Amino acid sequence: MTRPRRALLAWEFGAGRTHVLQILGLARHLREAGVECLAALYEPSLRDEFAAIGVPVIQTYVWPGRRRLAAGWHEGEVRAFGDVLVHLGMTFPGALGAALTHYDGVFALFQPDVVLGDNAPGALLAARGRVPAIAFGTNATLPPVRDGRFALRPDTQAEAAMFDERDIRDALNVELGAAGRPCLSELTDLLPAGSIYPFGPPAFDTYAAQRETPALPPYLAGFERPTRYERGEGVFAYLHGFVQGASAILDGLSDAQRATTLYLPGLMPAVRERLGPAIRVSDRALPQAWILSGPRCVLHHGGLQLTTACLAAGRPQVILAKELDNEIAGRFVGERGLGFACHVTQADAAFVREAVRAAHDDDLLAARCREAAAEFLVWTRPDPTRIVADAARRLLQRP
């Protein structure tokens, strides 16, 4: 009896539920098509959500740059995608070799017929020369190629990346050669040509002006067009664990004195005890349907999924941006008068307090958001994970 086709879904770095939801969405479509899936996740504590759709979870390889607090790898300056790979630790001696050994074990046990990677360079390199692969996910980490190199980020004033792509390629090739794997002619060969699917609306795309083909829409799990726009009650705050090292943010949220539901994965007991009485902590992720209908406003880091969903649902936002694409999203929201934005390193308690109060209390702001919502509904379709799943199915149908 012929066994079902199998897909390995890998995620190796990046904070937030964006990656989790994208992989879940893709896995659902593949499972509906009869494809067996295995999810190799950077954060395996989310396994219950995958178990619910019949997808087992394993811990993926953890790169050296991620073996510390969540504020780690992205603190280094980034001018191009190669810089991300260096900060991640891919060029550390032995790092890529260990990743390939990890995936050798996964391949031997699961025997995938296709690999799909969301921020998963190790999985993509492990698949080269063995099985077809697809790279998908956030547009900021799937840059276009220009003159044989990854495009420079448009915000950099420099004429070159922090680290020469040839040096990065050579360091990776040492490990690839030692493992008996095909070497890279150029660093850009790391991404599978013709099978790259960046997500996110063009308005928030770091590389929009440099792409020949626009990025796909963001994946909005379960988003439904509102039939009516309710005002909601209270605040929903979704923050990443690193803010626990910046007390001003949580102090400002407490000082706002508005009923708040806080989802902060990895919240430490000592930090929890300092939260104000108006803050209720949720230890589990909340459904997007509730986030977009229950609270009056949303405080978050400017992830493209949640920013787009709030715009389309007519919800005021406060964005504490971390990365360039988050800053672009925050600037868009602020300039349109649909919320407030600040880089997370510049957000003091006073800014957070006043921005949250205004987003919660200002009826004119709420009205502007509701009136503008229809403009952003077009950003929610089509479902990009279905497009990627269809591409995977076509690869699986090849002899």
UniProtKB/TrEMBL annotation:
Annotated coiled-coil segments of the chain: none
SUPFAM superfamilies: UDP-Glycosyltransferase/glycogen phosphorylase (SSF53756)
Residue ranges of the TM segments: none
Database matches in InterPro entries: EryCIII-like_C
Erythromycin biosynthesis protein CIII-like C-terminal domain: residues covered: 274-390
Example GO molecular function: glycosyltransferase activity
Stated name of the protein: Erythromycin biosynthesis protein CIII-like C-terminal domain-containing protein
Originating species: Aureimonas pseudogalii
